[in-house]
Amino acid sequence: MSKDQQKHQQRQQKIKDQVDQKIEQAQIEKGLLLVITGNGKGKSTAGFGNVLRATGHGYKACVGQFIKGGWDCGERNLLEQHQVEFAVMSTGFTWETQNRELDTQAAQEVWQRCKQWLSDPSIYLVLLDEITYMLSYDYLDVDEVVAAIANRPAEQSVVVTGRACHRKLIEIADTVSEVKNVKHAFEAGVKARQGIDW
Ligand code: ATP
Ligand code: MG
């Protein structure tokens, strides 16, 4: 073995030892609260990636979408064929929101379903997609949402997505990732694309 190869092997062995030690130290098993926030693209796709992962292992997953659901959502088309339940707003919140009362009512309807999921131990994963906006706009009560998530079954995981996540959710979360916007095609005038953006 050359000197270079030997050096490389030693370095890799050191990294492996450190990783092995960390793996050994991680002893806690529990459901997690993950928050995916920030201004860059990829939050909802990451959340749905988790739903896919859980579903692929045979676990039950449910999705609450806190945005008007009349659009053609690729993930929903696929996942509903795999017994993933969805609750989406029939009316109300869009990006050009205009009617506070309707929005609140629509958000509450989706939230009531989500609350049931958050108390059902047979559900392994709940995705609360875009729920952060409901808290920013005061359509849902932050303390109620925090309490429902905090008191969920011990083995259940929750993924929260959306920009500007409320600090109370960040505080109780286990894993928080911030997706940073480096650039986005839309800023260069490129249209949103089926299969990429929805
Ligand atoms: P995605 O659903 O693609 O994972 P996201 O959940 O991170 O995106 P949202 O803030 O929920 O982002 O916005 C949804 C839509 O807005 C998507 O079509 C996405 O491509 C687009 N979008 C996301 N980030 C940006 C950005 N920084 N500038 C312009 N458009 C964006
Ligand atoms: Mg999103």
Automatic annotation (TrEMBL):
Its EC number is 2.5.1.17. It is found in: Cytoplasm. Its main location: cytoplasm. Pathway: Cofactor biosynthesis; adenosylcobalamin biosynthesis; adenosylcobalamin from cob(II)yrinate a,c-diamide: step 2/7. Belongs to the Cob(I)alamin adenosyltransferase family. Required for both de novo synthesis of the corrin ring for the assimilation of exogenous corrinoids. Participates in the adenosylation of a variety of incomplete and complete corrinoids. This is Corrinoid adenosyltransferase. It comes from Agarivorans gilvus. The lineage of its organism: Bacteria, Pseudomonadati, Pseudomonadota, Gammaproteobacteria, Alteromonadales.
